[in-house]
Amino acid sequence: FGTMEINSEGHLEIGGCDSVSLASEYGTPLYIVDEKNIRNRCRIYKESFTSESLQTEVIYASKAFLNIAMCKLIANEGLSLDVVSGGELYTAIKADFPRQKIYFHGNNKLESELYMAVENNVGRIIIDNVNEFKVLSTITKNIGAKVEVLLRVNPGIEAYTHEYISTTKSDSKFGESIFADGIYDFIKEINDDPNISFKGLHSHIGSQIFEEGSFLEQATVMLKFIKSLNNKIGVQVNELNLGGGFGIYYTESDDPIDLPSFFERLLSEIDEQSNLLGIIPPKVLIEPGRSIVANAGTTLYKVGSTKTTYSGKNYVFVDGSMADNIRPALYGAKHEFCLANRMNDKAEKDFAITGKCCESGDILGKSFKLAKPNRGDLVAVSSTGAYNYSMASNYNRLTKPAVVFVKDGKAKIVVRRETYEDIIKNDVDIEG
Ligand code: LLP
């Protein structure tokens, strides 16, 4: 079960903390985040995404998991930050994240968000489309600001992953296609704008990708496009951001990429191909989200009831739901499960692990072998660090769980559990 340990009482231990004690101190459902695991991942990226001949930068894609404590951790590890909304940007600003290391993304940035990014002097704005460029151009002119931008393009690479998280098929909503009529004129227009400094290109081909070949192909297509921009309109591309998407282990069927050896190959191919094409090798940037945080997270639930249907299906009901982990319901995502307070008990039967929400799609695990759970037992779900807390909702007016960071046997709360008061705090009583 992930990188976790079993202690002498047969309990799951994470970051040196007994999960049973965590449950009694902080309640359930609980997102437990192993701080060292995240720091190690950051270090693997920082140390291995380097090359003697190329400049590189690692940006954490904060949509995977963000709060003030996480911003501070990322700043402390020296990574940059990708934000995609005013809310993410606001969090980064409140955490005093270095502004110049913020990359502002999004396919439909509001005018107010663009103002916020410009006024806060973020490092890069990643322009998604022609309309957005025009709005940004007007804003910068009006307030006399200068901004540095990348343009998000779609290189048309098919990456094999879930349809909802694949981003560069030709009909994707993200970026402008490198094959579109007018793409050269558009880039020339950005490059000629007096308030906007065109730094380079961005593309992101999808998420939870295992094929190294997809990333290599992406890099090749992008370098060729850079060359043609050079030739056709004399525009210099200094930065090439290849996005995120590096797949991670959830269950045995996943085969994650070995990052250090892959990056060595990727960066040396970029260097080599740039030389062959006769272009100045761009600085290369990547934006991992999931692969920084997913394995560091565990969700802890308490068992309410179990049930065996007339047809013989075994259910275990936990006190969380699709509201704190939408991924199985939305993408058919898989996780591993265990009974955190009975780690040494033999798994004997298949159980469907399901939550409290009023719908049959509220499945956390379709079928997983466990010892027969009793009321009050704790179910732990592995690898829930990415896109769980960040995608949580209040469906059925459930309160969002707390988040605790654990390290060296100590736990600290980084997001408080929501209360019923939080649930109604924006409701307006029209009678009152
Ligand atoms: N950069 C851009 C522009 C992105 O759109 C994304 C993810 C990333 C970086 C980070 O990708 P990662 O390294 O995390 O794969 N909610 C889905 C994943 C959506 C990913 C959206 N964009 C899930 O739970 O699987």
TrEMBL record:
Residue sites binding substrate per the record: 290, 327, 331, 359, 387
CDD domains: PLPDE_III_DapDC (cd06828)
Enzyme Commission no: 4.1.1.20
Residues the entry annotates as binding pyridoxal 5'-phosphate: 245, 287-290, 387
Active site: 358 (proton donor)
Enzyme class of the recorded protein, top EC level: lyase
Domain Orn/DAP/Arg decarboxylase 2 N-terminal as annotated: residue spans: 36-294
Cofactors (names): pyridoxal 5'-phosphate
GO biological process: lysine biosynthetic process via diaminopimelate
InterPro entries the UniProt entry points to: Ala_racemase/Decarboxylase_C, DAP_deCOOHase_LysA, De-COase2_CS, De-COase2_N, Orn/DAP/Arg_de-COase, PLP-binding_barrel
Catalyzed reaction equations: meso-2,6-diaminopimelate + H(+) = L-lysine + CO2
Modified residues annotated as N6-(pyridoxal phosphate)lysine in this record: 63
Protein family per UniProt: Belongs to the Orn/Lys/Arg decarboxylase class-II family. LysA subfamily.
HAMAP family: LysA (MF_02120)
Subunit organization: Homodimer.
Name of this chain's protein: Diaminopimelate decarboxylase
Taxonomic lineage of the native organism: Bacteria, Bacillati, Bacillota, Clostridia, Eubacteriales
Gene: lysA
